[in-house]
Amino acid sequence: MAPSLQHIAIIMDGNGRWAKKRLLPRTVGHVKGAANVRHMVKACAQAGVSYLTLFAFSSENWRRPPEEISALMGLFLQYLENEVAEMKAAGIRLRVIGDRSAFAPLLQSRIDQAEQETAHNDRLHLTIAANYGGQWDVLNAMRAWQVAHPDKNLQDLDANGLAAHLSTADLPDPELLIRTGGESRISNFLLWQTAYTELYFTDDFWPDFDAAALTKAIHWFEQRVRRFGRTDEQVAAQPITANANELSASPLAQTVFKIS
């Protein structure tokens, strides 16, 4: 039986190198990459994927040249202004995770508006990670848990308690993480959520990653044996098709994990 696949996460890498290879400014690569988001959303919807999370701008990307950051922010704003109406009509829900406080007020306003206008859609849940970092997410979750439980201390915090306060708390963890651009690291993306995610690395630059490349990645995923700590024999006898978080029903997984 093929593994369940409802959530794909993608690190969209290689826009600048795609442009450099063609002797073009890096900003041209970002424009091409932004346009590819539309194609990938459509491809995922057609493939029956319910959740797509895209790493658009990391908390470390502020170290890039100011003119490149300005271009990226402009593209983000343009995407929100040009695509939301179509997403709304297509049944796509948009949300943005990350620290929005660093964004310009107009961009923050457009993000809020886009989320509100698509809030009732459920054909595909598109999450954009912008000014996001996995370490930031975990620290935020710990702080939020402490605020919600002022009478408790960290000895009382378990894995489920922390996960409930992550920015993706209402989403299933991704089963497949794709990184384009030839790098083999996850770069502070969804650190907690990808504990049991299958990692797929491709040399394709993001602007070149099309529906055929997505199909290839999904086929690779379907060949994987997802054990979640079990043996091959156990998996063969009782395949796991649910999200890894649901393993808490097993006696072994009932052991409480605490942070000290």
Structure characterization notes:
The protein has 260 residues and is of the alpha/beta class. 40% of the residues lie in helices and 14% in strands. It is built from 8 helices and 6 strands; from the N terminus they run E-H-H-E-H-E-H-E-H-H-E-E-H-H. The chain has helices at 15-21, 26-46, 66-90, 105-117, 134-148, 159-163, 211-222, 232-237, and strands at residues 7-11, 51-58, 92-97, 124-132, 176-179, 198-201. A 6-stranded parallel β-sheet has the order 3-4-2-1-5-6, sandwiched between helices. Strand 3, helix 4 and strand 4 (124-132) form a beta-alpha-beta unit. It starts with 6 loop residues before the first strand and ends in a 23-residue tail after the last helix.
State the gist of this model.
The protein is α/β, with parallel strands linked by helices and 260 residues long. 40% of the residues lie in helices and 14% in strands. The chain has a 6-stranded parallel beta sheet, sandwiched between helices.
- Beta-strand percentage range: 5-15%
The run of helices and strands is EHHEHEHEHHEEHH
What is the averaged pLDDT score?
90
Q: Could you say which structural class the secondary elements and strand pairing correspond to? A: alpha/beta
Strand order of the largest sheet: 3-4-2-1-5-6
Structure summary, number of beta strands: 6
Sheet with the most strands, sense and barrel status: 6 strands, parallel
Regions with little confidence, pLDDT below 50 for 5+ residues: 244-260
